[in-house]
Amino acid sequence: MWRHYxxxxxxxxxxxAALIIGxxxxxxxxxxxSSQDNSNITPTLFVxxxxxxxxxxxxxxxxxxxxxxxxxxxxxxxxxEGKLSIRGNFSGSRYPFIQVIFEKNRATLHQQTLWLQELxxxxxxxxxxxxxxxxxxxxxxxASANFLVQDDGTYPTVEKLVVMGSPFLGIDKxxxxxxxxxxxxxxxxxxxxxxxxxxxxxxxxxxxxxVLAIAGRIDGKYTNENTDKVVKQKGYDGxxxxxxxxxxxxxxxxxxxxxYHQEVIQDASATHSGLHEHSDVDQSIAEFLx
Length: 290
Known about the structure:
This protein has helices at residues 7-30, 58-66, 109-127, 139-149, 174-179, 193-199, 227-230, 245-248, 279-289; strands at residues 44-47, 71-78, 84-88, 96-102, 131-137, 157-164, 210-217, 260-266. By secondary structure, the protein is an alpha/beta fold. It folds into two domains: 1-29; 41-289, Rossmann fold. An eight-stranded mixed β-sheet has the order 3-2-4-1-5-6-7-8, with helices on both faces. The N and C termini lie far apart (59 Å). The relative contact order is 0.13. Keywords: Hydrolase. Pfam families: DUF915. One of its GO terms (molecular function) is hydrolase activity.
């Protein structure tokens, strides 16, 4: 009977079979193991920014794997409606990586925070995760911090947070808002109510969390030593081409002095979208987390 099938019918049959097998493998690999104890592992959650996606952290995670710092073991897709689709499972390794992908990658800060709450709840209830680290690029850092100030103690305990190029004091580039669209833009302006509320939530920010803020500086005036002095100079605040140094380090206003750390990455490749591709950023994150 097979020889009477047309080439098109054969191809359709093969693709259908492959789809069924792939779906079964996906379901099996995404089903939590009830017998596995994950209470002692500390995953790191990677959250992309405005308009981001898989490419935001794929290559960084590949580099971390090459250096044997950990393994990407789970990807959590969040649909526009907030439905979670989870691929992968935990192997028991000490420091697994979890990559978060928002289908609606221009959603408001409030909406992204709700999604983070839901996936954190699922990691705890379905996978037994008790503690976790977070790494956020750009708006992903804002959403991570906003999640923390609204943490009611029912989620895994966040031990360390890394924010890179995250505009805690907003973006002061009018042309950026003219050339982009999306609900999130209202939360990224320097006078945004969401950012004002976030920065003003110092009392709600958990006092045990260690924070590393990373800023890019593509000109020659900043160093880690003179940052505070330079940003006070009226009319000047360099940055990564989009987010100023002072804005990227703005989380400093929310974190206790003893728990706050910062790095200003200074060279021409430390652009906003280049931060997650920069070897110095890799090193800073690796040393801080692991």
